[in-house]
Queue: 2 jobs
Job 1
Amino acid sequence: MTDNTNAKMLAMQKEHGPLLEVKDLAIDFTTDTGKPVHAVRDANFTVYPGQWVAIVGESGSGKSTSAMAVLGLLPGTGHVVNGSIKLDGEEIAGAKQSEFDKLRGTKMGLVPQDPMSNLNPVWRIGTQVKEALKANNMDVAHEKRSALAKALAGDEVEVKGNDDETFLGAKELPELMTEAKKALTEAGVSGEAFDKAVARFTNEWVPGSETRWRVADDLIKAGVADDQAWYLAKKYVTGSTMDDRIAGLLSEAGLPDAATRARQFPHEFSGGMRQRVGIARAYANQPDIMLMDEPFGHLDAQTRYMMEEELQRIWQKEKRTVIFVTNNIEEALFLADRIILLTNCPTHIKKEYVINMPHPRDYVDPEFLRLRQLITDNMDLTL
């Protein structure tokens, strides 16, 4: 992230204020004999737009419980007994389940630890992504970007309205690609520069994912005049179908040959691929804040590293707000802007770390290793 982009992000966060604000949160569970079990006490934290905040603690420390309270999804007899939870300035700690139902999917999204807990084994993948889109009446022809993403786009291109956020359709892609190559040639782009531009277009212009303003921006960056770039974008980027949008979401989540994958069933997917579907479903409604509850806990180490890099790529593009629950310090350091370290149950916040290292991060960078050791030592003291 450039210094200018970072400054814009900080200014936008200051102007907007916290997207999520948790104060003095206390959560209890009730035993069969009616006795309260104190799970969380005096939890205080804030999350600003565009931030990636990791909640870290040992198994059973209450990190998932704290996060699930935000979504209104406390399990069993769990209930909030004290404190405040404000989402974009609105108090939701005492909200009814019907009110939480409206918030989940539109304002908040969830990627659970076990992807199969969120997938129907007898439905095709595409049907399950479609269900997520239809449940919240999503416009599959237009993007709904976060306010932060719009603010950060200002240096690159002026997005004037909803029409500029129209998705590219599969039907129009071949002709757009042909005309884009002609425009490059007319602009005097040739040789290696031409090949690189075409390769970028081929990679980035995914139906149901790429939008009119991004197509125009790609053309301008490749050397096409502004007026010509916008002319082509407006002529050929006219909206996606439901199938386009489904394939676009799966592609954004890192699934190759997305149109084919949409016709398959969950049992045909590996654990990592299922989790990618979970991410696609959660992002389908483009919520303001995404909660990921140990999403890589069931994956092998290599797949876990790949998924971390995939998530970082998605975040760089979307700039959405993420709360990431994990017991893996390396994972938290690789992804997060801030790390909230919890004590054991009844949990409270022991320490908060601001991570100022630029992305992408290196696991063997001296500063990365120093912070990992620092947090590990502090975490051990809570055992």
Job 2
Amino acid sequence: MRVGVIGAGIVGACTARALSAAGVEVVVLDRGQVGSGTTSRGEGNILVSDKAPGPELQLALASRALWDELADELGAAPLEFEAKGGLVIGTSARSLEVLNDFSRGQQGAGVTVSMVGPDEARELEPWLAPDLPGGAWHPQDAQVQPVLASAAILADAARQGATFHASCEVVSVQTASDGGRVTGLVTSTAGVIEVDAVVNAAGTWGGVVGERLGAPIPVLPRRGFLLVTEPMPPRIRHKVYSADYVDNVAASTEGLETSCVVEGTQGGTILIGASRERVGFDKTMNPEIVQALARQAIALFPFLAQTQLLRVYRGFRPYCPDHLPVIGPDPRVSGVLHACGHEGAGIGLAPATAQLITAHLTGAAPIMDPTPFLPDRLIDEVPA
């Protein structure tokens, strides 16, 4: 079997590696370079702390274990993998109460979490503002550098036989005349590449690629801004964010939402997010969003008021109407599978997504029930 994987971001790289390890011949195609699309605009979050009980949380827990395996097999350094843990902060007595209820639900679903008071919170993060009431400690949260991780994982897939075509866009699909099954991918630079199946791992552009494959899906962009500070000695030890981030992740509103996420990197910079708004593929800079994120970050860590911003960048999270990724075979075109729509959680969910795709293609037992993620549920959501 020969499988084409469209997209060399983190989901495509993990899918290529998992398929190659299962003995499948894999060819990866990307209109840019490794990790140059959706993946390049992410923080590298591997989170279980922000997910309510349900299918996505189960996918996240399965994926979290697979990230440990990746770090063991490839080494933590090439991925910049850090099992640093996460601290979710209640910014008021009321938000702390809501967070406590949320955490109890997560515990029942298999998440390791403990509530901490203000003193314990500042033991974890000594530079926190002194007036915060406490939060929830999540030792399972982790982080990678997303582009480096994509490159390392794809390189390992190549060692197992996968090939990669950079700057190669898939413009259409060829199908058999006797049943419509995929037989080839028509590309911009490599002619027609013969395949037996194709995986749409195109991130935010999964909807566009789905149309080209004859299997449109409602994957849409949600813009976000991220601030990067000047490098400094380590001060923020873990992934730290305010409790309202959890609500914003799952919200469906079109308007602007901002909720503070702050974390350090191995390079010494501090990353500050996160905003969400549905504005299509508009890349326009918005200073008001930058100011809002900076204010929220300073409210958590006052020392940031004296810190210089190095740069601001923005990107797009791919979301589906029900906030679940779309993973699995498309019922309309035989041989087309989707692996996209992860809405800002693609880094964390990529390894388990890859395992589900591999199970669909090889007949192996899936790591969990794939039904909630199948494309069938979204076909009626595609605009006519």
